[in-house]
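Q: A reviewer asked whether we had any structural model of the full assembly, not just the individual parts. We don't, so I'm hoping you can provide one. Inputs are below.
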Amino acid sequence: QVQLQESGPGLLKPSETLSLTCVVSGGTISTYYWTWIRQAPGKGLQWLGYIYFIGTTDYDPSLKGRISMSVDTSKNQFSLRLTSVTAADTAIYYCARGRVGRDGNTLVYYFDHWGQGTLVTVSS
Amino acid sequence: QTVVTQEPSFSVSPGGTVTLTCGLTSGSVSTRYYTSWYQQTPGQAPRTLIYSTNSRSSGVPDRFSGSILGNKAALTITGAQADDESDYYCVLYMGSGVWVFGGGTKVTVL
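A: Here is a predicted structure for the entire assembly that you could use as a starting point for your response.
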């Protein structure tokens, strides 16, 4: 059974850099789109971006310039980095596995496994 | 900027049927957006319900179904149960590796 587990600092000050890691167990990190999604308190879900196992990335345009992702296939993990954080970046951050491509006779583009989420608070 | 729209809230009686929709502020949702739906209860991570418009994820009861209704994607819960009371999010795949979430619908069963 594939499991994802986020980890990282839970409290940051404004202007600091958010760094989170998601460890994937029970399955390979290859061939999937490894995704970060966040949810501000009381708000909806926001797709942040993905990194493909070979290192290709794409990000939410509203975060471009501040966001980057990396993958370490040897450790079966991937990471999120968000610079110059503000209170608006306070959220639960989820990692998820994105499935893209053909699944039998169906083309698929969705998130099939999620981590439990980690709360990051930005406060002075 | 593309905005994905969902009803803010819905109420359904136990055993009743409710249809949630997922639209676009500009244009129509079709199967080429590969709509997926996720259920989230308070304090929990989202759970995948539907992908590629109408395919149920493993273990999801068949009272959940996905479709295209008019110019929107839809999630129908038939025979609602108390534990269906949750927030429901749709996600559209916009192409070129970009996904966009809807704002979510809060479903109350009472």
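A: Points you may want to mention in the reply: The longest strand of chain B covers residues 86-95. Chain B touches chain A through 25 residues (CB under 8 Å).
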